[in-house]
Fold this protein.
Amino acid sequence: MLPLAGKALCLSCHQDKVEELKKAVVHQPVKEGDCSTCHLPHGSNERDNLIKPIAELCQDCHDPNIEKTKEAHGGYVVIGSNCTTCHNPHASDQPKLVNKYMHLPFAEKSCDACHKGFGNGGTVELIASGNELCAQCHDEVQTILSQANIHPAIQTGRECIGCHDPHASRNPKMMIDGVPTLCYDCHGDKQTAFTSDKAHPPVREGNCLGCHEKHSGSNKNLLKIGKNQLCYSCHSTEKARFTKELAHKPVADGDCSKCHNVHATENDFMLLKPENELCQNCHIIKSAAFQQAHFGFPMDKVRCAKCHDPHSTPRTSTKLLYPDQHTPFKNRSCVACHISSKSISTKGEGRQLCMQCHSKSEKLFSKRIVHEAVTMSGECLNCHSSHSGFTANFLNKPGNQVCYACHKKAKFERKFKHKPATESCSICHDVHSSDNAGLLTVEDQISLCEQCHDAEKTHLHPMGKDYKDPRTNERLVCSSCHSPHSSDYENILYADKQREICILCHSL
């Protein structure tokens, strides 16, 4: 049994079509609620789950050979044409479902502005070819073609009409499709990687034009601006730091791509290779100088970034070592932890080794719930570096970045963000152990939230010990409705505040 019938079932997922179907002219199968006239509900070899190729599909109902069809198309042969280049298959405010954006000659029915008329066998011929034809009206074509680097789609593909429809389009600028969908028509082999969790955020979000010129430009790879300046247009905080501090040579040279893949990679931090492999591209670990600098320790499988900042450090530091250094490391007393200066084996395992010096810290783990990072393999070293790191606590990464090693960063990066979650996890959580669920710093979640929020003044909805969440049968608290981290909805709600958040609990 389906939960809904016909079009209503389809629109329960395809909500972007709801507004579109309110337009003046609706395609008859859509009006009748029969999406399956054109689409297969489960899967297809055709785009958009179509039953068959577009031209064949349309001709099941619209005969291209009858006089009415020929007359509507100025006598031009449309057999085999992609009808959706001019017509919207769902709805339009234009007669005959013509797409919203129309090329001026098409809108004025001045076909001879581009076409000679009928060619051999009734086919259509153009008065000039490709870009040459477009340049007769569009002066910018010559400017585009005069640049040092031209988009291959313009030079060697279908030229201008590879991206722009010459008749009518659903998209501004007569684009055949929106970005990045249009880009994937050529770069389809990259789509899986570019839409993965490991992709660079602008790439994952489909913002190709944030970095690349669409037509042509003076920079290689059609970049809008050169080298690291493009990276710094987003990473401005890093620019302020890198330009003031002692920088790693690739950073000083402005060559971010020396270490990072700017689109997508399977490696952390968008690196071209796993960290230790990447460093060995430039640093010869078997050399005498390298061995001496590392006291003869075997370094082939060691993570260099445990001790060295790969970007920059304060000018008071040397060899890009992190400024906050563990005392044995700072004093080069390797044998304080290691069994000898020739072995990376240590005198104890995990927390047991750390507690030989940091015995006073044992009480940090004495509460009912211990942070899982401390109990799993690695223990203290899951968060802290044994050599050097960020802050006096020698964290492996700065601020919340250390938490993202286990907790998915995407959970904290939605549109609306809870301010403490962007500043420090420790504002709400005890990072070692706690007697409270979720490692919260206080037992009562509501009282924790009220340290910053005056709920009595801003919330009419009752909550607290006398009210239960019907979904969980637990006490109704702030996080029953609000995400404590981030959300795509205003006020960091789990759903839209007008209705959707309410019906999560209140049935209709």
